[in-house]
Amino acid sequence: MEAKSERSVVVSGKTVEDAINNGLAMLGVRRDQVDVEIITEGSRGVLGFGAEHARVRLAVKVPAAPPVAETPPSPPKREGPRFRERRPAREPRHAEEVRQVEEVSVAEEARPAADVRETRIEPGEGTPEAVGREVLDELLRLMGVHASVDTYLGEDLADEGQPAPIVLNITGEDLGILIGRRGETLRALQYLVRLMVSHRVKHWTNLVVDVESYLARRRNALESLANRVADQAIRSGRTQALEPMPPYERRLVHIALRKHPRVTTQSVGEGERRKVTIVPKK
Questions:
Q1: 3-state SS, residue 10
Q2: Sheet holding 263-268: strands in order across?
């Protein structure tokens, strides 16, 4: 089926595969949902010098509407003996209960998130947010990343009853490399910034580092996904499993459903395969 492109992004990585994974993380889609154009395959350089990252363009596919087929005229009905249509026997309930738990992917279920709520702030001299912005700007410069840093109160990142955190949001082009697989690179960058800022201001500072509001959009998508899959679990009467997630994202799913009257959540599995299951209450 012919497809046309609606969204696209140009990203880079150490290898072509790394660049593609960075782009998929930014767009929140699966590999089979994009067209990939390799701009440059990159090079390893000589003894580490002159190395160049691979760059690719990812374009999200949007299925074209199928052509409407004309319905041929129905042949005239002939009178004949009537037979009662036999309906297929219902599947026994016990067979339905022993089916394998279904695993739901965020990329499959994700829908466009609501607009990100944010309150812009101007950091004062010597404040943690001002130091954080200075530190992050310097780190980006040393990494060779051309981007700017804005500060705001992340209302969409605040837990219920907690104050909104101060967000250092990086904006620019080709920033998928800062997010990484499942947000691993972004979490490492945030940890480094917090450590350096806390050393400068002499107390621990809970700053959030984000890229193009990725964290807020991801949180909205996970909360929406959790509620939709909870509805599926209630309708089917079967446990539903989400795809494996890092601890921070599993926590968001547990929080989203902790007050749900008809389902409970559990984390199962080990290491990188650990995931959240949504269980209908009896």
A1: strand
A2: 102-104, 240-242, 275-280, 263-268
Residues 226-277: pLDDT tens digits?
999 999 999 999 999 999 988 889 999 999 999 999 999 999 998 888 999 9
CB 256 within 8 A of CB 216: no
> What are the strands of the beta sheet with 54-63, ordered from one edge?
3-13, 54-63, 34-40
DSSP H helical ranges for the chain: 16-27, 93-97, 106-109, 128-143, 184-201, 214-236, 247-257
For the chain, give the mean pLDDT.
78
Q: How far is CA 192 from CA 50, 132, 133, 209, in A?
A: 27, 10, 13, 10
Sign for the pseudo-dihedral over CA of 119, 120, 125, 131: positive
- Output the pLDDT for position 108: 39
- The predicted structure's pLDDT at residue 171: 93
Distance CA 235, CA 203 (A): 50
- CA 13, CA 30: separation in Å to the nearest integer? 18
Tokens of 99: 């089916």
Tell me the two tokens of residue 55.
């760059």
CB 201 within 8 A of CB 128: yes
Find out whether 11 and 177 touch, Cβ atoms under 8 Å: yes
What CA–CA distances, in Å, run from 153 to 110, 207, 210? 25, 10, 12
**How far is residue 76's CA from residue 98's CA, in Å, rounded to a whole number?**
47
